[in-house]
L-galactonate oxidoreductase
Amino acid sequence: MKAKTAVLIKDHTAEVHERELGEIGDHQVLVKLDTCNLCTTDYQQWMGLREKQGYPMAGGHENSGIVTAAGKDVKNIVVGDRVAFGYIFCGDCPACRAGNTFECTNIDFDAVSPDGYKGDMGIATYKLADAKYTIKVSNQLEPAQAGFVEPLGTVIHGIKKLHIQPQEDVVVVGAGTMGLLNALTARAYGARVIVSELTEKKLKRAESMGFETIHAKETEPADAVFDLTKGKGADIVIGAVGATKAYDQCLQMLREHRGKFLVFAAGYPEPELHISPNDIHYRQIQIIGTMGGGIGDFEEAAKLLSNGTIDVSGCLEGITIGLKDIQKAFEAASAPDAYRVTVDCQDV
């Protein structure tokens, strides 16, 4: 069968192409996609900031839909299930066998499809996917919220590395979509969460979700953190903005000893990290990198979304644009301070 798919053909230019999906495999499911949220990776390439990802790019991975057919060897997913997706993996290499499916050595994440496209083919009317990385969610979950399985899974992957203890002071620098997801997850894991942000819109959004906030334009963020923690400083700081100044602030907020700094965000152009190795040594600072997520992280994300433990409605901009107007969708998603913009994959 054929599917209509959004494709970036060059910077600032998105089109809808029709492509042949092929026959469903024995271990695959066919999913009629309802929505796809445009993530930073998607719209930054549209803006010309991630040219190295290549063209034509048929991206999109924050999507959700209903299974309309399943291969004969698919066991745990049936027609009518609402699903989202994790990352493809082989399941057989040493990394996969150790549970680190995101580090799979047998998958080429830059591969080109037989018909010449790169990407996950996720802003589309239909998608064929291997059942092993297809994640079931509650059928009652709104499609756009179900699309957060992937980004929330990447957040969970990083949060797990922090070993958060009840009522630890966690500061999230940046209240964009991924910053708010980090804040929501840290709170779900039992932390007291403070969010530092520059813009009024994002501060108000964080406050509406119940977080303590620091207005980084009106006060020195590190001073505010020490005031809020009675002079102790943050046990953990999560950098959700990929910028040198933000990283400087993150390091300044840490408590004197054994503080943890999670470098969650990449930055383009690449930011600098200013810290003395002696500080890391004497203060026993932990600088922790995180990237992607494994299949277990995505399954946990699906549970937290499905049972309502984490409500991601505040991470949506509240704008839905049809696939037929994909250029307008990228324009909206790349607007300053925008949260996730949703593409209606059936509006073609």
Remarks:
- The chain has a mean pLDDT of 97.
- The radius of gyration is 20 Å.
